Amino acid sequence: xxKRLLLIRGAELLMFxxxxxxxxxxxxSYALGLLTLLAIYGILLIGLDVTVGYLGQVNLAQAAFLxxxxxxxxxxxxxxxxxxxxxxxxxxxxxxxxGALLAxxxxxxxxxxxxxxxxxxxxxxxxxxxxxxWLTGGAxxxxxxxxxxxxxxxxxxxFYWLCVALLALVWVAMRNLLASQWGRAFEALRxxxxxxxxxxxxxxxxxxxxxxxxxxxxxxxxxLYAFNFQYLQPQAxxxxxxxxxxxxxxxxxxxxxxxxxxxxxxxxxxxxxxxNRLLFEVISAAGFALALFAGIRGLFRKTLGPFQAIAxxxxxxxLVFGGxxxxxxxxxxxxxxxxxxxxxxxxLPEGLMGFASKFLSRLFRIPEAxxxxxxxxxxxxxxxxxxxxxxxxxxxxLKRYFGGVKAVDGVTTTVRAxxxxxxxxxxxxxxxxxxxxxxxxxxxxxxxxxxxxHPLPRGSLYKTAQDGVARTFQNLQxxxxxxxIENVMVALNGVYKRSxxxxxxxxxxxxxxxxxxxADALALLEFVGLGDQARTPAKDLTYGAxxxxxxxxxxxxxxxxxxxxxxxxxxxxxxxxxxxELIERxxxxxxxxxxxxxxxxxxxxxxxxxxxxxxxxxxxxxxxxEVKRHPKVVEAYLGEVDVGEKxxxxxxx
Amino acid sequence: xxxxxxxxxxxxxxxxxxxxxLIAYGFQLTFATSKSINFGQGELVMVSAFFSLTLITVGxxxxxxxxxxxxxxxxxxxxxxxxxxxxxxQQKSEGWILLTIILGLFFFSLAENIWGRDDRxxxxxISQTAIQILGVDVTPVELSVAVGVFAIMGxxxxxxxxxxxxxxxxxxxxxxxxxxxxxxxxxxxxMLSYALSGIVAALAGILVSPxxxxxxxxxxALILKAFSVAVVAxxxxxxxxxIVGMFLGALEGVASFAxxxxxxxxPGLILLxxxxxxxxxxxxxxxxxxxx
Amino acid sequence: xxxRFVPLLLSLVALPTFAADTLKLAITGxxxxxxxxxxxxxxxxxxLAISEINNAGGVQVxxxxxxxxxxxxxxxxxxxxxxxxAQEMASMPGLxxxxxxxxxxxxxxxxxxxxxxxxxxxxxxxxxxASMTQWVGKAPELSIFRFAxxxxxxAAMVVEEAIKRKFTKVAIFHDATNYGVxxxxxxxxxxxxxxxxxxxxxxxxxxxxxxxxxxxxxxAKSGGAEAILIWAIGxxxxxxxxxxxxxxxxxxxxxxxxxxxxxxxxNAGKNGNGALMPQTFIEEPxxxxxxxxxDAYHKAYGVNRxxxxxxxxxxxxxxxIFAAAVKQAGSADTHKIKGALEDLKEPVQGVxxxxxxxxxxxxxxxxxxxxxxxRDHCVMGMVQDGKVVFAHDEDKQxxxxxxxxx
Lengths: 653, 292, 406
Description:
The complex is a heterotrimer. In chain A, α2 crosses α12 and α8 (about 180-190) packs across α10. Chain A has three domains: about 30-270, no CATH class; about 275-370; about 390-470 and about 560-653, Rossmann fold, CATH 3.40.50.300. Chain A has 27 helices and twelve strands. Chain A starts with a helix and ends in a 15-residue tail after the last helix. Chain A is α/β, with parallel strands linked by helices. Chain B is an all-alpha fold. Chain B has eleven helices and two strands. In chain B, about 75% of the residues lie in helices and about 0% in strands. By secondary structure, chain C is an alpha/beta fold. Chain C has two domains: about 1-150 and about 290-375, Response regulator (Rossmann fold); about 150-280 and about 380-405, Response regulator (Rossmann fold), CATH 3.40.50.2300. Chain C is built from 14 helices and 15 strands. In chain C, α9 links the parallel β9 and β10 (about 255). Chains in contact: A-B, A-C, B-C. Chains A and B meet through α4, α5, α11, α14 and α15 of A and α3, α4, α9 and α11 of B.
C-alpha cells in the first residue's frame, strides 16, 4: 500500500519539484516564458479533460473560456484597477456562469450536435470580443500591466512559480473530484445517460457541473494568460486554438491528469520542437518505431485490427520521411500535429499517458489498491418489512400512444407490496413500453400512476428513481467504461452525503464515504455472486455476469420497487436458475418486484401474480396457473382455437 | 434601409446561402447512411477548389475542369471515409468526430504549403458584370450558383429515390446489420455516400470561389454556416436545407447592413444555438424516440 | 555537446548556437498571411543588401570585417507570435540588432521585450505610428527606431489628393485592426486640418477576412460618395475594389500605401486601376541606383515585378543604414550601435534617398527623433495595368533629384 502511494504521489511531487527548480538552474527568460505557458495550458487542459475525457464529448469551447477569462481579468485590471486576486476571481466566476449557461442548451445534445453548440459559442465569443470595441479594444487589442498580488509586484520568475503552484492546487483538487462519486457520475453519463438517470444520479446537474467546472478552470487559465502576455487580441481565441487544445488532450491521454499535462507540454512547446530540426527528427523517428512495434505486436496478438495496426505506421512514416523532405518544418506545423494525432487516436486510443501508464505500471509492478472488506448485507441492502397485500404500485387506465400506434391502451392493474408480479404477453404487446412509462422514460399519454397512493413523477427517470423505483433494462445499459464495482458504487443510495458537495470533495473530505461505498458495493456484488470480479471492467464480463451486474446495480438503490425487464433474456439454463434464486433472495429482503419475462417457468416459479398484455390491453390477470389456462392468453400466444378442438395444455418447458 | 437595398441584400445573401445549403446537403448524404458527418468538410471544399484552380491555370477549359474537379472531390471523399470514418463505424463509436477534424487540419496544412497562404482569384468564363433583375443587381456568376446547386441536388435526389442503390442508403442508415443480411454491403453504401458528399463539396468550391476567391481560410468561413444550416434544417431533411440556407444567407446580408458587418454572423449563430436547444433534430427533421 | 544537451533536455527549447565571428542580425515580419507581400519583400530587399555587403567582405567593425548572419522569424502578423519572437530575440546572446515588422499590433505586443534589454531595432517597412508614439513620455532612452513614412504624412497626402481632384463627398473605409483604426483617425484629423473641404458621407468598418463588402458599399453609394478613402490591406482592399465595380460605383480608391501591395493589384485585376496611394519608392528606374536595385532584385528572385516595392526598398536602405551605424560604432554590440544610429555622421547612399543624419538622440517628447522619413520623401503612386506608377509627373523629377544627393 505504501509502495503504491509512494510511486504515484512521488512521481507527481518530483514533477512539480522539477518544474519549480528549472528557472533556478537555467537563466533564460524565453524558456521561462514557455514554461509559464505550459503551466497555464496545463490548467486549461485539465479543465477540458472533464468534458472530453470523463463526459466523453467533443468540447470545442475551451478556447472561448480562455479568452473570456483573459478579457475579464484584463478589464478588471484596466477599467476597475483591480489587483490580481480580485481579477482572477472575477475571471473564474464569469466563466463558471457562462459555462453553466452554455450547458443549458447543450443538455439535450449528444455527439455532433454538442460539438456544434460549443463551436458556435466559440465563434460568438470571438465576434463579441471583436465588435465591442469600446470595451475590449476590438481587433486592436487590449494592453495591461500585470497587477501586484497582495501588494507585491511579481517578477517573471515569481509569476511562474505562482502558475506552477496553482497548477499543483488544481491537480490535487481535480484528483479528489475525479476519484469521487462525481467522477463516476461523469463517466456514467458518458456511457449511458438513460441508466444514469434511472439510477438516481441526475444527468442534468452533473452535466452542468462538469461543464461549469471545465469553464471555471478555463477562466483561471485565462486570467493567468492575460497576466502573462499583458496584451490580448480576440483573434487569439478562435476555432484553430480550440482544435489544438482538444487534440492536446487526446494526444496526452484522456481521463488523466498526467495526460492533460503531457498534452499541455506538447501544445506549449510544439512550435519550438519543430524549429529544431534535429529534435523533430528524433521524436518522429521514435514515434515511427513505437507505431511499428505496437502495430506489429497488435497484429500478431490479434488485439488490433489491420487498419488500427497499419494506419499509425503509415502516418508516422509520412511524418518521418516528409520531415526529411521539406525545407521548413515550421510551415508544416499543422500537418505534423495532425499526423501525430492521427497515429495516437487510431493506434493509441488511450493517448500517450494511457499507453505509458500501462507500460510503467508493469515496469514498476505497482500493486493494486487493497480491497476493503465487504459490508454486512444489512447495511448495503437493508431488509424491509413489508405488509403483504397492500397496494404498492397502482396503474389506472394508463395509456401511451406513439402517433397512431397504441402501445399501451388503457391498462389498470395493481402491484401489491411484497409480491413478485409478472408481466407477460406476446411480442409487441406493450410490456416494455408500460414499464418504460412507469419508470419515467416516457410520459404517459393518459392515465395515473401511484406509488403508496401518491402520484409517481411522470416522464422523469431521475425523479422516479429518487422515489424508490429501480429497474434493469431489456438491452443492457451498463456503464461499460467502468469496472463492476464502480457500476454499483455509482448507484448507491444514501451513502453520499458530503460527496454531494463539490467544494468539500475538492478539498478531499469525501474519502471516508468512498471507503464505505466500496465496502457496500462489494457486499452487493457478493450477494449476486460477482464478488471476485469486482475490478473487472464491465465490458469484459460475460453476458450472464453483466445481467447479474445490472441487478446488483439496481438493488444498490435500496428500492421499494424493482422492475426487471426480461432479465433472463439470452441466459443459459444454469444462469437462469441462479438468477431465479437471486430474484427470490432479493424478494426476501422486502423488495416488491415487477418482472417482464418470456420464460414461462421463471414466471411460474417466481410470481405471485401475473398480468398478461396483448395489443396494449390487459387481457388476463391472476396466479400463474390461472393465467396459463386462460383462453385469451392461449389465443394470444398460440393463435385462434377452432371450435371443437380442446385447447392443448401448454407444454411445460 | 430602403426597399431596394433590402431586396439587394436578401437576394445576394440568399444566393450565397445556397452554397451553405449545398455543403449542408453533403452532410446529409453521409448522415443518411452512417449517422456520421465530416467535420473537415470545409477543407474538402477548399482543396477541391484549389485543385480546380490549378487545372484552370494549366490551361484546361473550364467546362472540363468541372467534371475533373468533381471526380477529385469524390476521391477525397473516399479517402476521408477510409481513413477517418470506417474504423469508428466498425467500433460503433463516435471517434469519427475527432478523426475527421484531424484530417481536416492535415488537408489545411497541405493546401497552405502546396498553394500558399494567400487568397487567389478564381477565373471563370461566366460573366461577372451585374445585370438588373427586378431592380436588383445580380451577376451571372451568382446565378450560376443557384443553377449548380439545384442541378446537383436534383440529380442526387433522383438517384436516391429511383434507383435501388439509392434505396440502399435508407436501409443501411436504419440498420446496417439487417442491411448486410439483405445483401447490401453497408461499407460500400457508406463509401458511396462519402464519394457523393465529396462531389457536392467540390462543386460548392467551384461555384463559390469566383465570388469569394480561393484561400486556405475559406474553409472555416463556410463550414460553421453550413453546420448551422444542416442542424437547423435537420440532418434528414432533404430539401429543407435549401430553404434554411437561403434564409440564413439573407439574414446575414441584412444583419451586416443593419448591425454592422462584424455582427453579420451573430443572428445565424444565435439561431443555431436556439434551434439546438429547442429542436435538436431540426425544423424539418423527425423526432427520435428512445428505445431501451 | 553534453553542455548543450542539458539545457535542451530541461527546457526543450531550441536555441540556435552561433559561430562567434559573424554579425547577428534578425529579420522579422509577416512572411505569410495577408501582409506577406510587405514582409517578404522587405526581407528580400534586406537580404539583397546583406549579400552585397557580404560579397564585399562584410561590415567594417573596427579593424576587421564581419559577415552578416541573418536570423529570420515569421510573425505571421499575429501578435502572440510577435511577442514570443521578441522574447526569443531579447534572450539571444550576441544579437546586434533587429530589422522588420509590418503590423502595429505585433509591434505593440513584442517590442517592449526588446526595449527592456536595449536591443536596437529598426521598424520597417511599416507598423503604424502607434509603434513609436507608445514610447512618448515613457522611456528616457529608446532602442527602437522607425524607417517608414509617418502615417500622418500619408493621411495628409490622401486628403490633399482628394481635394486636388475636386471631390467634395467622400466615404472612409477601414479595417478593424490598429492600422485601419488609426488610419481612420488620421484621416478625420487631416480633413479638419485642411479646412473641412470634404464631407464624409459614410464611415465603414470591416474585419480581416471579410469578403463581402456589399453593405458598406451600398451605404457609400447611397450617400453619394465621389471617392473612397481607404485604410486596409491587400485582400480586403481587393474585395472593396471588386465589390465597387460590381455595383457600378465609380468612385476611386485613395488610401494608405498598402494599395501598392501585389495581393491587392492581382486580386482586383482591372478593378484596381486608378487606385492612388502615397509611396516612398516607385518601381521605376528614375536614377541609376534605383535601376541597379530593381534589376538586382528581379534577377535574384526571378520576378519581373517586386511584390511590394516600397517594402523592398526600405528593407534594403535600412540594412545599409544599420551597417553604417555598425561601422561608426566599431562594434557589434547593440547598445553601441544604437548610439551610433542616433548620430550618424556619414551620409548613406540609399535607393530611396541619400540619408543624412536620419536620426537624432531620443527625445521623450518628440517622436520624430527616431523617425527617418519626412514629407519630401513621399509621392503619390497610382495602380495601372498591374503595376504602380507615378501619379504625378513632377514627382518623378523631384525624387530623382533627391536621390542624387550632394
